[in-house]
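Colleagues,

For the teaching module next term, I've prepared a clean inverse folding example: a structure given as tokens, and then the sequence designed for it. I'd like students to try predicting residues themselves before seeing the answer, so please don't circulate the second half yet.
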């Protein structure tokens, strides 16, 4: 039994080292070249998450209100709950995990192109973008809404790496939390409101 545990620990350590090395290499490749116009665009994409969250929630609710569609109005409320849940979880995890930003960890290799707090995991911008995309997708259930919503959210995740703010695993964590919060909120609403 001790031998199996020892082998597991060695494999786990090797996998962890490999994934950290891959995480760093991917980030470095995305962050290195100097493209001022593209970087300015990526800053705009990152910042756009802040107005996109409330605009999406209010837009969904308002459409329901105007059309007297109680389901869509309820979707507006669920969108607000799922985004708030995602942002809350992300904030808590940042302080629990305490992962330093890549530009702090590798100041000679990763170019800092934006400003952010001290902690990296998970990406708050990515979490918010994917929570918003999931809420919008679950509200409308149309491919021509879902595809652009998730494309935008993916671009936000990319922008956080391009700007040197996050590792790929930070972005992946944000994606999982954002999508998971939306799915969980919709499932809980369905379970509690069976008619």
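(Answer key — instructors only)
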């Amino acid at each position: 039994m001790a031998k199996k545990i020892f082998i597991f620990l060695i494999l786990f350590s090797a996998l962890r080292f490999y994934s950290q090395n891959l995480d760093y290499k991917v980030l470095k490749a995305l962050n290195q070249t100097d493209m001022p116009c593209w970087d300015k665009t990526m800053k705009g994409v990152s910042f756009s998450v802040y107005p996109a969250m409330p605009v999406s929630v209010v837009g969904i609710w308002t459409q329901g209100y105007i059309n007297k569609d109680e389901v869509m109005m309820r979707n507006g409320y669920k969108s607000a709950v799922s985004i708030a849940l995602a942002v809350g979880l992300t904030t808590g995890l940042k302080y629990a995990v305490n992962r330093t930003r890549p530009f702090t960890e590798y100041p000679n290799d990763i170019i800092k192109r934006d400003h952010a707090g001290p902690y990296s995991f998970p990406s708050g911008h990515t979490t918010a973008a994917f929570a918003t995309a999931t809420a919008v997708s679950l509200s409308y259930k149309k491919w021509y809404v879902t595809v652009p919503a998730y494309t935008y959210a993916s671009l936000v995740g990319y922008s956080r790496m391009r700007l040197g703010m996050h590792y790929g695993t930070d972005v992946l964590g944000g994606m999982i939390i954002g999508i998971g919060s939306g799915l969980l909120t919709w499932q809980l609403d369905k379970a509690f409101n069976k008619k």
